[in-house]
Amino acid sequence: MTDNNPHIGRRKYLTLAGGAAASAAIAGCAGGGGEETTTTTEDDGEMTTTEGGDETTATPQESFDVTITQGQMPSGLDPHDHRETPTDIVVLHAYEGVLTRDAAGAMQEALATNYERIDGENAVRFDLREGVTFHNGDELTPEDVAYSINRVVDEEVGFASPQSDQLAGVTGAEAIEGEMAVKVNNDGLNPIVFSEFATYLDVMQQSWVEERSKAEVGQQMNGTGPFQLSSYTEDEEVVLTAYEDYWQDPAAVDTLTFRAASEASTRVNQLLQGETDVIVNVPPQEVSRVNNSENARVAAAPSTRIIYNAMRFDVEPFTSVEFRQAMNYAIDLESIVQNVLGGFGAQTSQPTLPEFVGHNADLDPYPYDPDQAEQLVEDSGFAGAEIELHTPVGRYLKDLEIAQAVAGYIDELPNVTATVRQRDFGSLVDELLAGSIEARPPWFLIGWGEATFDGGLVMQALLASDGTLTTWQNEEFDALLEEAGTQTGDARDATLQEANAMAHEQCPWIFLNQQFSVYGVNDAIAWEARSDERIDAYAMSLK
Questions:
Q1: Alpha helices in 381-436 (DSSP H)
Q2: How far apart are CA 495 and CA 488, in angstroms?
Q3: pLDDT at 411
């Protein structure tokens, strides 16, 4: 790259330990000093060991600046006080967990160097990395990690975190006296505890949080990640800079800026005009325009996100199973995927995606059958119903267009009238997280990404009677989820498949599509899309 490249930052060259960085990515350890390092990883409950060796010769890499434009700005900067991916994408650059995942979804160590089950497998232990510092220069302690876990799972520690169910089964944590380690307690055998920690739980500094008001924590940042906060203008811009004392090599990206534009056409224009470097949710009709441009390309990947229409079981006409089934027969889902999404999606038949534990391969999507839909509406006793679909705009790929297509198909039925109500994503999320079914719209479009690849967590959060976003209550379904919580391996998978079959039949949702993540990327930047929707600037480099 030449010096007139607009992405070249203040630091001209950055020394990267190429071999060590690759070793760290595979084994999840920092490495260094030519010393042998040993780490452990878990897959389906089995512990494995890998060994790393010497670092290789460092190679120079120019630093550069990157701007990312999402559909929505973060709702705040407190990593424990949100449930939205746009916020997660921002805060994960400054905050880290004890474990993480690579781009392929494999589990890796992060702030922990080792993890294992203890106390008859009802608790787990994390050995923590030495010498890690927060952005204020203070060193990471076991007390900080324990505090962070407790802040999420225990309301008395700070507040009612909307992320508590993301650490399902975890009851609390404590520092192990005299050791750089933490003990995490569970309410029994927790079959997915390591999977949870590989996806969730950002570590914060206890003293830093306790010295600030909740509002201040949401406006500032102090993590251990590769980027630190430079400035934050609410609803407008977040600017981060590379943290030079990061425990791994400093990021090649020098300044990282986040902005938002709800209109996809605006994001595409900004990309092609060189005003931004990565944009989300490129609409299908713009793909060829981006790919045929001189300075940008499309990067796409199937995501872990399911898009669906929730129907509140306690509000007529959705109290009727027949009516809910009718809504699924009424829509031509295949046409929506092909014509609205341009093939950047896949039909769904259940709450769990094919890549997830518990997916039931015997379930097919509901076929398009408007005659069956009309008859089921009559059978339900709610002929003549008028329903309104609440949808965000610009949050998900073609979200408004999907909602309009769904309502259009249903409105074609002679005995149902359907309309669409466009909603600000933030205000809609506030209603969904209000804590009770009654606060939620009767019918709404929303997406849910589950980066743990675990169907049990999806169903617990979205369909269990006490789920974070539930619109349904069914004792038999709850019992299946409770049973799965005591199982591992094939037994758990079979129970979750049974729960998926029940959800398919009872139709608490209109089952829509698996979202594909479709990004526009500046051609000067090397970066690949991930299935978990994370936009990891630490993994970016110049071509």
A1: 399-411, 425-432
A2: 10
A3: 98
